Input
Amino acid sequence: MSKQQRESFVFYRSFFEAIEEVEAEYQLPIYRAIAMYALDKKEPQLTGFAKVLWRLIKPQIDANWLRYKNGCSGGAPMGNTNAKKNNQKTTEKQPNVNDNVNDNVNDNVNDNKESTNVPKKNFSLSIEKRKENFLEEIRLNASDYPPEMLNQFFAYWTEKKQNGKKMRFEMEKTWETKKRLARWRREY
Output
């Protein structure tokens, strides 16, 4: 097995439900595209409606590839602030790879207890890079929420401050994207 091949992948109910809504002629190409990309990272050559649906599904598969690659290399990516923190203070519990996906996200939640630490934000990155990182973090939850809701969430929380140096989500005292998304869905 080569380094860029996998033996398995996660297929989400949201993929199935979306594909079931399209005409039969598009279903097989989309299923094949998902399998080929998720297992071998082969980019599909789709057209029309199949290509549109693929663009909505691909970010979740990319997020799963990132988790897979992090797991193969022993966990959090190099430079991840969570990895550095665990090296300073030795604990019995090892970090969960799925908790350390984004370099700029530090959940600080341990054993389902609420944390009193506020994540440190990396303002040395450009605002566009921070916006990209935030989008990637949202894409990790793409299978759990409708795309329209995620787009509205992203648009709202990335609104820039008047001076253009910070976005709305960066000005919050506390921030956990999963919890914010769950609340947004209740109010959506």
About this structure: DSSP finds seven helices and no strands in the chain. The two ends are 44 Å apart (CA to CA). Helices lie at 13-20, 24-40, 48-72, 81-88, 127-139, 147-157, 177-187.
